[in-house]
Specification:
It is a single chain. The protein has a single domain (10-184), classed as Phosphoribosyl-aminoimidazole Synthetase, Chain A, domain 2 (Alpha-Beta Complex), CATH 3.90.650.10. It is globular. 35% of the residues are buried. It has 185 residues and is an alpha+beta fold. Helices cover 31% and strands 19% of the residues. α4 packs across α6.
Length: 185
């Protein structure tokens, strides 16, 4: 039986909350129809191509999906007050963050707040893909998002960093006056 008061379902997300993004290890098995098409169109030699960081393209494109349970457990054990979590899977930033937001709230994601991993630069170099489509199809380097009160951000960043995570402050929650999720930066 689930003890309901401990369930983090996004219901307590509030205007002014911040979003912390935890780094992904690559595409995380999302967008592979587009990945196959990009590789085909670009005539890539994925088995032999090397990314800007020196890693082999095939290893990074096919890197296993990261699990974020240790990060969540670290936040909970440290008593960090979290209002919502979003796993950035198929649907990217748009669908996954929107799904957790309460009625009347929206999210602004600052895409300049984290570096885009070389694997995405590699894949997207083969075709002209619109910016929003990139962030709707791929995680673009952010695999998991924690939404929490501003006053908890410093503690959460410290806890996640201590747990071995790479974490970025990627945006905030505001009153909805248009789209549910907007990209800035």
């Amino acid at each position: 039986m689930i003890y309901r008061p401990k369930v983090i379902d996004g219901a307590t997300i509030a205007e002014g909350d911040v979003m912390l993004g935890i780094a992904s290890s690559g595409p995380h098995s999302n967008g592979f129809s587009l990945i196959r098409k990009l590789i085909e169109v670009g005539g890539a030699d994925i088995a032999n191509d090397v990314l800007a960081d020196g890693s082999k393209a095939i290893d990074t494109v096919l890197a296993p999906t990261r699990l974020y349970v240790p990060a969540v457990k670290a936040l909970m054990a440290a008593g960090v007050q979290v209002h919502g979590f979003s796993h950035i899977t198929g649907g990217g930033m748009f669908d996954n963050i929107e799904r957790i937001l309460p009625e009347g709230l929206a999210a602004a994601v600052d895409i300049s707040s984290w570096p885009i991993p070389p694997v995405f630069d590699y894949l997207l170099s083969f075709a002209d893909v619109a910016r929003d489509e990139c962030y709707r199809t791929f995680n673009m380097g952010i695999g998991f998002v924690a939404i929490l009160p501003e006053m908890q951000a410093g503690k959460a960043i410290a806890v996640l960093t201590e747990a071995g995570e790479t974490v970025y402050r990627i945006g905030s929650i505001h009153h909805k006056d248009g789209e549910s999720v907007t990209l800035t930066g």
